[in-house]
Design brief:
Elements lengths: L1 H23 L1 E7 L17 H11 L4 E7 L2 H9 L4 E7 L8 E3 L4 E4 L2 E5 L10 E2 L2 E2 L1 H7 L4 E4 L6 H8 L6 E4 L4 H10 L5 E4 L1 H10 L7 E5 L6 E9 L2 H20 L1 H6 L4 H11 L12
Parallel strand pairs: 1-2, 1-3, 9-10, 9-11
Antiparallel strand pairs: 3-13, 4-13, 5-13, 6-11, 6-12, 7-8
């Protein structure tokens, strides 16, 4: 009788050990927000963003953790990264402020920098402040009463953030909620806002989702800002966060060379795709991105 029960006892013991092992794994919270073309929550391209496709690749190669994807807005995501929790954000820009509480990976992807979005009907407002096709954003906002729509707690790169810090709070219309950029574009469409700071691939996608015409908008790069900036994975600066980044840094070199540029390029204007892919091949040749 006892021998007959051995297989059953073995199975129960194995099940208990597996359950115990699963319970022992630390839970890693991945913070994502609706941020096309990186993460797309709704619509025909749902789940086809760059980071939508990157995250499963990272998760599959990090079986030591119990992974959970959490949707947050930018302000809440920054708040969670400052808490003593095990959280990571795959779409972070490096800034000195964030470096005080976030442990950053090596650069993962070079993306086109942010710029100024205006309606075609309002582009004459910018003409005195243009240097070629680039806008002097600091002078524009300092010398006019125009308001700039921005997403609260979002970094637009160290260079752009430095420009914004020089301006009074009255120069901005900040949006704190979900779908922040889409809401700012709707305000612009209604004439309640003339200027929106954004990334053209994101804005382009949102305009099309709102059934707008791209011909009704113009995008201007900001004078003095590098053409490309670099995304990182950032985790809470704790022992667990630093351990996760050490593993992620082992995975990123191949992904950023072979996979991520192509996933991003498909969201660019057709005439930019080939140029971007050519540039992207040289982003990390020295082992580091040419800037944060």
């Amino acid at each position: 009788m006892r021998i007959r029960h051995l297989p059953l006892l073995f199975c129960l013991l194995l099940t208990a050990l597996v359950a115990q092992s699963a319970e022992a794994r630390e839970r890693l919270l991945w913070l994502v927000r609706d941020l096309p073309p990186f993460t797309i929550f709704e619509g025909p391209a749902k789940g086809q963003g760059v980071i939508d496709q990157l995250l499963p690749m990272l998760i599959a190669q990090m079986p030591e953790y119990d992974h959970q994807i959490v949707r947050v807005n930018r302000a809440r995501g920054i708040q969670m990264l400052q808490e003593p929790s095990f959280t990571c954000d795959p779409t972070l820009l490096w800034t000195p402020e964030r470096a005080r509480y976030v442990h950053f990976s090596q650069p993962s992807l070079g993306v086109l920098s942010s710029g100024l979005v205006v309606r075609t009907r309002d582009q004459a407002l910018l003409e005195p402040f243009l240097d070629g096709q680039q806008v002097d954003l600091q002078r524009l906002l300092a010398q006019t009463r125009l308001k700039l729509g921005i997403v609260a707690e979002r970094s637009y790169s160290v260079q752009v953030d430095d420009v914004l810090k020089q301006l009074p709070d009255s120069a901005f219309s900040r949006h704190y909620g979900n779908d922040a950029t889409a809401s700012l574009l709707q305000m612009q469409q209604l004439g309640r806002l003339q200027l929106v700071l954004g990334y053209w691939p994101e804005v382009r996608y949102l305009i099309q989702q709102q059934n707008g015409s791209l011909d009704d908008y113009r995008f201007y790069p900001i004078r003095g800002v590098d053409r490309y900036q670099f995304l990182h994975v950032g985790c809470s600066d704790t022992a667990l966060g630093r351990e996760a980044i050490a593993h992620i840094d082992q995975l990123l070199p191949m992904l950023r060379r072979d996979t991520l540029p192509g996933l991003y390029a498909r969201w660019l204007d057709t005439e930019l795709q080939e140029d971007y892919l050519g540039q992207a091949r040289h982003f990390f040749e020295q082992g580091e991105a040419p800037g944060r």
